[in-house]
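ok, trying the design again with the full structure, not the truncated one.
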């Protein structure tokens, strides 16, 4: 057989190139859309019973769907901190949620994804929920983002004039001359919810009815500006959906979807609009990654999301919810999609074990940047999976305690291949008000998720399968804890001070500022009047 001619080799390479995902040329732009409290079953591509997500389903059809993808924690602040640092809360210091009065936030010695990308020449923006500290240099404007527009924490952490739907229902903000309010459990009634643009409170209370539209407008404006500048961009879009209170579009479709379904449709339309804008300004050079911060909030009943098959039967039989705040699959297995025409193969389903932790190192690698030194990362560069060249992710994945049981942030659940070991279990508050008591397990409960995705029946400790896998799980657990204990670990400041509460006008009831000049945060070194936020 003769040696192939140079021309035939070139033709063969060209033909392969037509069918294979293209190599990355130059610096791509990135859009990370993080939904809040979204269930794995809230995506129609995941769960056939869900009909409200045609735009997300289109993303799945034109890109890659991940079916074994996990949030780095099962509650808001730790999950977001891990996404933006590539490190678990046991390393970055964020182990539970920050409050309206929190002085601290994500420790300042932790490097965010935005900081790395901005140093690499990117325009950066955060739009939506932050929840990693709003006082001083913890504000997103000091954490690598050129532009910020959003709410500094969850949108149920302040009153509004448009309360939306919640369980229990929460009253609107008080006004001058109104009668004394009745305190309601789980409702914030003293301070109105603020909306920031950079360091300025532009609205307090926020109008939740128009919030989704404003987020979409600001995202589109940022993408347009970045495209016009010729620089690559990083947009971190952290949606209010599907966290309560749920709002309903002004004219919800009369399709019997209910409140949750109508809100899910609104989120889907918002994502569809962002995709459309990205396609218009940077198709072929913009990676869009959609996922969630944790599973659904089950205690909100019909206002909570859909678990799909991840129902945590073992825990449900003992009381409590196996969703948000727990280390059951329903708490941390989240929908995830990646879309990048010409690079990510279409109609591809990945079964690789992946995490939101992987977003940081993957985008850093694709940008041609370097990971921050002097620290270890829990995430992986999973670009080979994105490009369809591999379907291998983590061998071991750690699931930190997130409020339901055990000390928050500690690692007492881990995954090794298809096996999942629990050293502590517990259920969060369920719709019926029950809470599953914390139970410690030594030896651990072990489930084989390949056979038992519902987490119904742990392996019999006397079985050959249990005895075969226990040594490997024990070694992996010990090695993980040792690795964390010898790392450069941060410690978050969780102290509180009412003086740091974001407040537009301390002289007005609930800090209202409609019709008044917006309140701008002062530089961190300046002294402030009580209750002015920084």
């Amino acid at each position: 057989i003769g040696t192939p001619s140079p021309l035939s080799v070139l033709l063969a390479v060209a033909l392969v190139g037509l069918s294979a995902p293209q190599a990355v040329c130059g610096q791509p732009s990135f859009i990370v859309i993080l939904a809040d409290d979204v269930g794995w079953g809230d995506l129609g591509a995941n769960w056939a019973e869900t009909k409200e997500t045609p735009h997300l389903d289109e993303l799945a059809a034109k890109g890659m769907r991940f079916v074994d993808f996990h949030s780095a924690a099962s509650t808001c602040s730790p999950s977001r901190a891990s996404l933006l640092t590539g490190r678990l809360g046991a390393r970055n210091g964020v182990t539970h949620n920050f409050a309206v009065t929190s002085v601290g936030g994500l420790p300042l010695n932790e490097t965010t994804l935005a900081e790395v990308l901005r140093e690499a020449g990117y325009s950066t923006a955060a739009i939506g929920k932050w929840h990693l500290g709003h006082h001083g240099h913890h504000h997103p404007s000091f954490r690598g983002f050129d532009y910020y527009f959003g709410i500094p924490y969850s949108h149920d952490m302040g009153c509004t004039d448009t309360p939306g739907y919640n369980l229990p229902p929460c009253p609107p903000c008080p006004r001058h001359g109104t009668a004394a309010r009745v305190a309601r459990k789980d409702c914030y009634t003293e301070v109105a919810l603020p909306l920031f643009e950079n360091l300025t409170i532009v609205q307090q209370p926020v109008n939740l009815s128009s919030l989704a539209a404003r987020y979409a407008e600001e995202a589109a404006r940022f993408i347009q500006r970045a495209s016009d500048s010729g620089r690559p961009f990083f947009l971190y879009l952290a949606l209010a959906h599907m966290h309560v209170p749920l709002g309903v579009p002004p004219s919800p479709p009369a399709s019997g979807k209910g409140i949750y379904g109508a809100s899910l449709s609104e989120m889907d339309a918002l994502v569809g609009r962002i995709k459309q804008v990205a396609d218009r300004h940077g198709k072929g050079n913009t990676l869009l990654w959609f996922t969630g911060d944790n599973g659904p909030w089950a205690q909100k009943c019909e206002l909570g999301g859909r678990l799909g098959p991840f129902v945590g039967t073992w825990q449900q039989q003992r009381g409590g919810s196996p969703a948000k705040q727990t280390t059951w699959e329903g708490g941390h297995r989240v929908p995830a999609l990646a879309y990048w025409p010409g690079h990510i193969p279409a109609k591809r389903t990945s079964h690789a074990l992946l995490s939101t932790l992987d977003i940081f190192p993957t985008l850093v690698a694709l940008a041609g940047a370097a990971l921050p030194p002097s620290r270890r990362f829990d995430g992986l560069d999973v670009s080979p999976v994105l490009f369809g060249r591999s379907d291998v992710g983590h061998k071991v994945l750690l699931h930190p305690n997130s409020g339901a049981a055990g000390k928050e942030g500690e690692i007492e659940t881990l995954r090794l291949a298809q096996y999942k070991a629990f050293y502590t279990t517990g259920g969060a508050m369920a719709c019926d008000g029950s809470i599953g008591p914390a139970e410690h397990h030594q030896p651990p409960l072990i489930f084989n998720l390949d056979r038992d995705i519902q987490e119904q029946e742990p392996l019999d400790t006397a079985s050959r399968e249990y005895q075969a896998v226990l040594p490997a799980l024990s070694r992996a657990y010990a090695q993980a804890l040792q690795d964390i204990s010898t790392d450069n670990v941060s410690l978050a400041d969780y102290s509180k001070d009412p003086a740091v509460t974001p407040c537009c006008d301390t002289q007005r009831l609930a800090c209202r500022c409609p019709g008044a000049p917006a309140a701008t945060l002062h530089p961190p070194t300046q002294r402030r009047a009580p209750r002015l936020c920084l």
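Keeping the full-length input from now on. Residues 29-172+181-393+496-511 form a domain with the Alkaline Phosphatase, subunit A fold (CATH 3.40.720.10).
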